[in-house]
């Protein structure tokens, strides 16, 4: 599709590539930052919204707040640009599949994937609610499933006040139909309605008078599996006071129900299933836009120029969060092998090395100078000292762990991290952590508890992630490499454990992996982006099959990241 400028104006400093979607809130385009070569999504606000001064005032405030939000279940807002010719939001470009597309292509997800989706959505809502930002119109097109099966929430705060019910009628709480403002309670209602749709294949209510159905129809909890009916009953309660008091409270009830019904491994299984469904949906054609809702309600407000309910996933800029779905693009293992974008009409994605294919280093040095490559990476990351990351450690000997979030590089000090992480045993539940210097801050309810970095439990897990997923982990491997080859943009090599173990920081982790797997060398593979910054790191201690440990780390959205100690 050829790119067309919006009202003749584009945001300066970016090269527009192609249109990604459009809707009532405006048009979304894929663009490249001319300075950093980073891909971004830009949402150009529709003229009707720009003319609404009350909306614009609220949107500016929400954008300022959400631009400071760092959460792995929420996409990033980079900048809000206003000019006499127009207004636009510059936001994170996210490869993924909208939940709307997954449901259209695959139907019901099953209980484990549905629980995983709801858990990720609630985490994103909890992060936004904590800074007093309400989403307003949660719907399947605003939930993005990335290549690791994480549910990431998009499209915050772009519904004009009083129009939320018309924007997403199948998911709109009863009080929205009466003209009440969007609240934490309406967000939880909508999230539950999506959860119901994942379980059954259809929203809880459908008909010609959506307002009456949401207000008066019985909650159809009997349509879902027995262990999950109480969650549906709580979230779809007609009275907002009867719903969970917060997203965090609802998440606690979800985890209790999931563990009781499906065991402690429910989350890993659910995320794996959600990953499969998203990958399969990405191979299907983009579903057509839903027809305009025929809903009615005596007190509903009809908004001029509003789009049909549940439009494309990119329809609304998230005043804070906007992540844009590339039709069919799924990352995860794909980027490591292919290095580029994956179209929804392309062949099935090649498995990542961590899953099946194992890059084997060549015996000869291969002609690539490891020290020069390491220096190039350091120079490149100095210009953009931070990124979003996804980390996974698998294999034997108590290794399984996962994390995602953002980090910022600090001159002369360890990098700072903001992440959601989980491990095994007592750390199997997901926890939010901020790592700065020698302190790890763990979130407990609404409070943060500081602990020494490297302590037992979650502090030890957070330090492991920092050592294994940092830029210094990449350069440590390169500087110790005894062989390094390059093919198709992928660097593959080996490094002796004896040399790695002498390196402060990440060397300790490599030594632990080697002891557990009884090997003398670490095999690794690395892919860089167009600016010589890491986009994927894969390493293995041990044989391809048998007693081994594998760490896979993905990097994206490089730029300046300010990680601050929580209060």
From TrEMBL:
Keywords: ATP-binding, Kinase, Nucleotide-binding, Serine/threonine-protein kinase, Transferase. It comes from the Bacteria. Pfam families: Pkinase. Residues 293-303 have a biased composition (Polar residues). Residues 283-313, 342-369 are annotated as: Disordered. It is an enzyme of class 2 (transferase). Its EC number is 2.7.11.1. Residues 14-259 form the Protein kinase domain. GO terms for molecular function: ATP binding; protein serine/threonine kinase activity. This is non-specific serine/threonine protein kinase.
């Amino acid at each position: 599709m050829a790119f067309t400028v919006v009202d003749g104006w584009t945001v300066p400093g970016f090269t527009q590539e192609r249109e990604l979607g459009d809707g009532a809130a405006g048009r979304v385009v894929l663009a490249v930052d001319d300075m950093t070569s980073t891909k971004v999504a830009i949402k150009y606000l529709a003229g009707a919204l720009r003319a609404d001064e009350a909306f614009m005032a609220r949107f500016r405030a929400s954008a300022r707040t959400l631009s400071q939000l760092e959460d792995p279940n929420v996409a990033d807002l980079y900048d809000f640009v206003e000019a006499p010719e127009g207004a636009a939001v510059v936001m994170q470009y996210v490869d993924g599949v909208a939940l709307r597309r997954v449901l259209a292509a695959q139907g019901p997800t099953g209980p484990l994937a549905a629980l995983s989706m709801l858990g990720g959505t609630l985490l994103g809502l909890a992060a936004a609610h904590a800074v007093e930002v309400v989403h307003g119109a949660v719907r399947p097109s605003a939930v993005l499933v990335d290549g690791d099966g994480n549910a990431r929430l998009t499209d915050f705060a772009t519904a004009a006040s009083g129009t939320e019910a018309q924007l997403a009628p199948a998911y709109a709480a009863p009080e929205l139909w009466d003209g009440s403002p969007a609240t934490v309670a309406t967000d939880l209602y909508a999230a539950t309605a999506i959860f119901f749709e994942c379980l059954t294949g259809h929203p809880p209510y459908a008909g010609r008078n959506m307002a009456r159905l949401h207000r008066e129809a019985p909650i159809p909890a009997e349509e879902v599996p027995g262990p999950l009916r109480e969650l549906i009953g709580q979230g779809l309660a007609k009275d907002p006071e009867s719903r969970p008091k917060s997203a965090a409270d609802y998440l606690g009830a979800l985890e209790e129900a999931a563990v009781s019904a499906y065991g402690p491994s429910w989350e890993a299984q659910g995320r794996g299933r959600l990953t499969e469904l998203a990958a399969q949906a990405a191979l299907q054609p983009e579903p057509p836009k839903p027809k305009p809702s025929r809903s009615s309600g005596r007190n509903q407000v009809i908004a001029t120029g509003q789009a049909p309910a549940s439009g494309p996933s990119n329809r609304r800029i998230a005043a804070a969060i906007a992540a844009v779905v590339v039709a069919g693009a799924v990352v995860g293992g794909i980027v490591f092998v292919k290095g580029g974008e994956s179209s929804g009409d392309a062949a099935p994605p090649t498995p990542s090395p961590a899953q099946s294919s194992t890059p084997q280093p060549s015996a000869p040095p291969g002609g690539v100078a490891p020290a020069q490559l390491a220096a190039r990476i350091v120079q490149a990351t100095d210009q953009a000292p931070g990124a979003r990351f996804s980390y996974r450690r698998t294999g034997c000997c108590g290794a399984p762990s996962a994390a995602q979030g953002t980090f910022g590089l600090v001159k002369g000090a360890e990098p700072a991290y903001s992440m959601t992480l989980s491990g095994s045993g007592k750390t199997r539940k997901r926890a939010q952590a901020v790592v700065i210097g020698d302190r790890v801050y763990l979130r407990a309810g609404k409070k943060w508890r500081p602990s020494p970095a490297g302590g037992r439990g979650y502090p030890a897990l957070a330090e492991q992630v920092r050592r294994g997923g940092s830029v210094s982990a990449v350069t440590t491997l390169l500087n110790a490499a005894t062989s390094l080859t390059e093919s198709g943009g992928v660097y593959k090599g080996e490094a002796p454990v004896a040399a790695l173990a002498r390196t402060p920081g990440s060397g300790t982790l490599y030594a632990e992996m080697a002891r557990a797997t009884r090997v003398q060398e670490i095999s690794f593979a690395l892919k860089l982006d167009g600016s010589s910054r890491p986009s994927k790191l894969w390493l293995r201690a041990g044989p391809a099959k048998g007693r081994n440990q594998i760490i896979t780390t993905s990097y994206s959205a490089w730029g300046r990241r300010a990680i601050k100690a929580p209060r």
